Request: fold
Amino acid sequence: MTAPGHDHPKIVVLDFGSQVSMLIARRLREVQVFSEMRPYTAWREVLADPLVAGIVLSGGPASVSDPGAPDVGAELWRGGKPLLGICYGMQLMCHALGGRLAPAANREYGHAELEVLEPDALFAGQPARQPVWMSHGDRVDALPPGFQALARTAEIPYAAAADPARGFYCVQFHPEVAHTRHGLAMIEAFARRACRLEDRWTAAAFVAEAVAEIRDQVGRERVLCAVSGGVDSTVMATLVDRAVGDRLHAVYVDNGVMRLGESDQVQRDLDSFLQRPIQRVDAGAVFLARLAGVTAPERKRKIIGETFIDVFTESTRERGPFGFLAQGTLYPDRIESHSIHGPSSVIKTHHNVGGLPERLGFALVEPLRDLFKDEVRRVGRELGIPASLLGRHPFPGPGLAVRILGEVTAARVSLLQRADHIFIEELRRSGQYDAIWQAGAILLPVQSVGVMGDQRTYENAVALRAVTSLDGMTADWARIPPDLLARVSNRIINEVPGVNRVVYDVSSKPPSTIEWE
Reply:
């Protein structure tokens, strides 16, 4: 876990544009190594930072031979820092140090079997043959002087290589993805053996530093806190409460697109745990009015972000003044909303990041801005938050608005609320809820023909989405038992007027995202 502004040895990931670059930092955190992401253009300042114990060069979509391909200066190779090049990072390292690249005979994408030739620092204690995940067009045909081959595949003679004397390591595959079975061990080996990092970062250390950072940031000002009842905002509110006490004013905005009965449940949970009054604002009519006629997903998110701020400002005008607005923004929210770490693409705008208007009116307090979801849960356990709150599935800030494909209306919200409620209720009854990372129903903008009561129907279709994941950066579709899916489908079609078809989403992230919008 990270808390910017504090002095800890760290490993920095230089991002060359891979959509899974963030997973490298995520895996380092998983083995309790302090890590952060930077764009590849920041290589000079990263190299000059005495706290940087090692540098990872990520993958990327470019070819090293492309005009204007991402590059670094020669000083990086002479800087004395241990380096790990992954995919494009390997190709860049070998090209810069005198190796030779060539286009692969066939673009390799997917599973491959790795044969370990030398159980060097990266592969110590690992099987001689193991599955890895490839995604590349170029490959290294000749190693630079001083490098030795560590591993190969049937297609690639140099699937991993190293110059241990200089602390240089490189792999053509992606150790950061779950498909590379021993990838986490490789990443930890680089951190512990090559970089000699023994420092371990814990939830207890994060709590102490986050509380101190909040106090330093806000001084004696009052803090307006946005709460939703989800894991992120609950942990965030608890941290802020610990830092500023009764100078915290927590507000829950019912945006009209929450789950069935959720607003009442959220208020009960927060009142009982925080033991501090929660101001509830029923603003569903305002949100729905502004969303009328809007079908574009990004526009929905922008409208919801802007409306949140308007509602906050208006509802707290008489209770202010407030100098700060606290939010439960996480690292994945920021990464997917902005291409802030390099040439990677924007995936979608999160309502509390890219959706915020430029003239906010508050300074932001975001103590979880560099954490992943599982790290937030560990912090929550450290803070004593009940497991019933920490175990809740993630729910998008824009709520059901981004699970209603097409226009958001009160009637369509009501329909989806009922279908979604049945799905979640059956997951809980069956004991499947805790085995799933996130689940929900999606209202599709299509109608289909059906037969109900011997009569033809032409009604709505609902998709069910359930995934397993650690952090939301990658996810696999959940293997829900067929009889459970059948029960959910039967109940939705029979109990929710206007629905005559239910489908189940069996796509993973990547290439899909978890939410449909």
About this structure: Confidence is low (pLDDT under 50) at residues 1-5, 338-358. The longest strand covers residues 100-116. The chain has three domains: 10-194, 203-390, 403-504.
